[in-house]
Every structure is written in C-alpha cells, then in structure tokens.
Amino acid sequence: MCGIAGMFDPGGVCDAETQAILATMTGVLRHRGPDDSGTWVDPAAGVALGHRRLSILDLSPLGHQPMHSMDGRYVITFNGEIYNFRALRDELANRGHTFRGRSDTEVLLAAVAEWTVQPAVERLNGMFAFALWDRAEHTLHLARDRAGEKPLYYGWLGETLLFGSELKSLRAHPAFHSPIDRDALALFLRYGYIPAPHTIYRGVHKLPPGTLLSLKAGAGDQVAPVQYWSARQAAARGLSDPFTQSLACAVEECDALLRDAVKLRMEADVPLGAFLSGGIDSSTIVALMQAQSPRPVKTFAIGFEEARYNEAHRAAAVARHLGTEHTELYATPDEALAVIPHLPALYDEPFADPSQIPTHLVAALTRKYVTVSLSGDAGDELFGGYTRYVRGPALWRTVSRTPAPVRRALAQALSLRHSTLAAAVNPLVRRWTGKRSFTERCRQAEEILALGSAAELYRYMMSFWKQPAAVVLGASEPSIPTMLDLPPGVDAHERQLWMYRDLVTYLPDDILVKVDRASMGVSLESRIPLLDHRVIEFAWRLPLSFKTGGGEGKRILRQVLNRYVPKDLVARRKQGFGIPLAAWLRGPLRSWAEALLDERRLQTEGFFDPGPIRRKWTEHVAGGTSWDYDLWAVLMFEAWLEETARAPRTGHSGRLALRQESLVT
Hints:
The protein is of the alpha+beta class. It has four domains: 228 residues, Glutamine Phosphoribosylpyrophosphate, subunit 1, domain 1; 222 residues, Rossmann fold (3-Layer(aba) Sandwich), CATH 3.40.50.620; 90 residues, no CATH class; 66 residues, no CATH class.
C-alpha cells in the first residue's frame, strides 16, 4: 500500500524543477508510505512519476518504485495489492518472463508487457490505483480497481495533467489554484460525501472505479475514462444468470469463495490482523482467517462506555470462541473528541460520515501491532444487511398505494402538527423516521408523502440536507450518472434497486473513502475480502430470499458464519459504528461548532445562506429536535475550509494557468 503522484505535460518539463515539485507532491503523502520514496522524470516526454512506499510484499530494495519493466518499455507507480500475483507470476514465468524480486508490482509490469494494459488489468484480483507510462507509445495510463478501494484524483492545469492518491498531493503543486465547486458542495450537503467523478474542486475529478484513462501525447484533455469492469455489468450478468440451486448449496459455494478471498488477502511479509466488531461481516472474515491460520489471528476492537454505541463485549465473545489474540481499547469521550481536529487533513476533502471517528480510533489501535488488517466492509451492500433495504421499499409500497388526493390531505394535516394527530400518527411515523421529535417526524412524513418514486425515496433517506442547492449559494445540484444508469432487471424488485445504488455510490464514495483515509492516515493497509470481484458477481446471482429472506438481512452470510461461531454470539440487531453526535454538539463540541457556524463568518465566506443553518443550529441546541447530521456536514466543510487555508503553500512558478474561472465569493 502506497501513495502515488505525478504529472504529464506533453510539451516537456524541466528536470530539476519537476523533481523538486514531485518530491513535494509525494512528501505530503508520507503517511501512505513511510518506508521509502522515489521519483522518475522523463523531461522530453513531460512525464513525472512519484511514489511513497508502505512495504508489504518484498521488503527489499527490489520493491522500490517507480519501477521499470524488464524490457524498459514501461514505468509504473503503483498503489495497492494484486492478490493473485503468485498465480500470474507462474503463468508469466511459463511464458518466458523472468523476475528480479518478489513484488506484485513487478508481476503487474510483466503482465502488461505480455498482454497490454487493459487485458492485464482484467486479470487482476486486487485493490489498486496506478499510473503507467508506455515509453514506446508515449501514453500515460491511469487505472483504478473494480470496487474503488484505492483512490485516484486527476485534473488539468493548463497543459499539465496532475494526479495523485489524495487531493493534497495535487494541491502541493505550486500552480494549483482550482476554485471550490459549488455544485459538488451541494452534493456534499446532501450525501455527506462527494460522489465520483466530482471533487470539491472544479476541474478535478475522481477516476471512477473499474476504469482506465489513457492519455496519448497530443490527444488533449477530452479523453474520457473507459470501463474495463462495472458493477452495472456484474449486476446485469447476475440477474440474467441466477443461482438456481438450494440455499444449502449457495452457503457451501459462498463459504468456499470467501475462504479463498480471505486466504489471498492473508499474503504479507509484515504482521497481519483484522478488525473485529462482533457483527456478522467482521466475525465471518475473522472466522475464515482463523480457520486457515496456524496461529491465533490478531484481532482489534474499539469500545465505548455508552452502551448504545458499544460492541466491544460482543467482539470479545467472538474472539474467545475463535481463539484469536484479541486487543480492545475502550475509548473515552475525550479520546474520541480529540480526533475531530485531525479530520479535515485526514480526509482531505469534506467528508461527514460520523463513523469516521471510531474508524480512525480502531485503525490507530491496530497499527500499533500490525501493518495489514482485514475488514468486513461491504457485507451490507452485497448481502442486504441495511434495515433500509426492508423498510424503504415497504414504506414506498404503502405510500404509492395511497391515492394522490389522500396523500395531499395527509401531508396538509401533518403540516399543521395538531396535537390530536400526534397520538394517532406518532407510532407509525416513529417507525420509519427514527428517534426524532414529533415535529420533525411529521415534517419528514409530510415530505415523504410528496415523493413520486422509490428512487426519490432512496435519495431522500440517504440525504442529510433535503434541499442543499437552496443552502449553497450559486449551486445547481448535478445528477449522479451511476445512480441513474440502472442495469436491466434491477428495478424488478425495489430492494435490488436500493442495494445496487449503494454499491455504486455509497460504498465507494463513503465507506471505502472512510476506510482508506482512516487506515492510511496511520500507515495501515486495510484489505476487504468481500470486495473480491468474484464475491460481488456471486452476490448478484443470488435470489433475494438468500439475502433478506426469513425476516433478516445477510441470511446467507449468517449461515456461513454459523459453521464457525454459535448463532447466539452474533444473533442481534445491527448496531452500526456510531458516536453520540447529537449530544456532543449540544455539549463538549458546542463552542467549536458555534465558532464555525457564526453567522458573520458564513456571510463573509459566501458559500452558504446562513439562515437555514443558524435556524437548525438554534433548534438543535434547544433540544427540541436533532439536526446532527445536517449540521455535521456544514461543520466538516467549514473545518476543511479552515484547514486548507492554514496549509502551507509552495512558491508559484507562474507557468500554468487554470482552464476555468473561479466564482467570485
């Protein structure tokens, strides 16, 4: 696992100046690769590749990057792991290739030399982002793994393409002065993250998962990424070729597939362990690790004193049963709160999933003992674990069957907030909208009754701010292409629709961002067996009844886990990985939040209409209702804005010019 950065200017670059800039761009990524660094520049071709290394496989200097292919044609800077590199190496050796060291990067270079770029990438089982320069074709290839585990940002400044593992590496270039994208900011207020391909900066993009971007000298900046794999295609193939055998057969196949996915991800030349929350997903991964390990697996968990947010005792029970070497830390509120000032620099882009705090804590704990950790992420999205997959479609069926005049009348009645209505409606509304005040539940029910489709309900339930473009000045909220481009048949059942949309948006742009930044921020490599592309494709072949049947989510995963762990140790309601955010904003975080939400500050910055924000802040502090998620999104943007303003800048060479004008603020 590493950090990569670089640039491409077909007009050529100055060697000494570019080497210095590249060293700065990679230097800000040191946390992603503290063990080694390297740069390579071809001044005439205008290509510069930089690398920071976290040594995992082949700890010797033979794993140094940027790395050249044996024939000298290709040069690569690579971030990630190729889990099937041993099988590929054997195949390539049989075809006459020789190898200097034992790294997966060298195997990838040989694969490209043998099959060319896209066919080679299609053979990879792994998580990765890389930049590959083809010296013969004068072409730069940028690639990202299928699920989007590893990040890659890119953008044009004048005639120069910049790219890197994090936005801070692009910002480290002396000519980087891209304006904040207000449309992307509206997306952020809605979702709490910025969906790909957007970033917080106008003109800078996330390379979408499963794509290649190939730039040839003279081609300009209009080249678009090309998909070599997509979740849409995986879902379509699965639905057209469903699994037709029994649940017992599916459990057997799932067990074998997950065992292999876990085994591949246990390959490392450094200490390895696993996150263990005690839930279905992480317990399954740890059970399969321990079943294939000759020694106790190292497992790690974070606990909290507040029972509502504590799962450590469940993790400990699973660890005892499996015989792992378990380490847990009960974090105090002060320890959790101490993470918050570091979030803007850690996540590098506004990011408002509050579970970022406990995720960072467990990553920091784990890094004290190991360098690689497996996690159980993606089980909910692939196997139907979220309660919204049941509640959302059921709610929409109720709403859609209600005649429009009745819905309008109900909405009008709810808008009046009559106390007599409260007694009748409160239990029903509470079921769907959580533990909020009656006033807020009525407001939510009123808004839900006005929705026109299941897709609108999905977006509503995934939204922090329901009308973000009305809060962000000068914004027009863009649509998300992946959310609209549905595979054939996926809308045949509403639960499939919701799971698919999570797979292509929420998972790569929220969950995987959270895991990558939290782990790499402490130089820890996190691996996710459930995102083996074979597992994704298998999951989409399964009947829904194997996922959400029997009144529970992740039915098939539960049955796999029951082979290793007694059912009563993990048979519980899904809890999540949360913090008491609403209470913190009224208590220990109140003065911090008040400073960031100061009306004059918001007016001076010019990004937000202060009115709706101040109104929600006042209502939240008063305790009558909770606007914790809405406010947290604004706070994370404000904290990020403050952090980027403080970040040191290198000198401006004056050589590059932006292609787009900034909005006046």
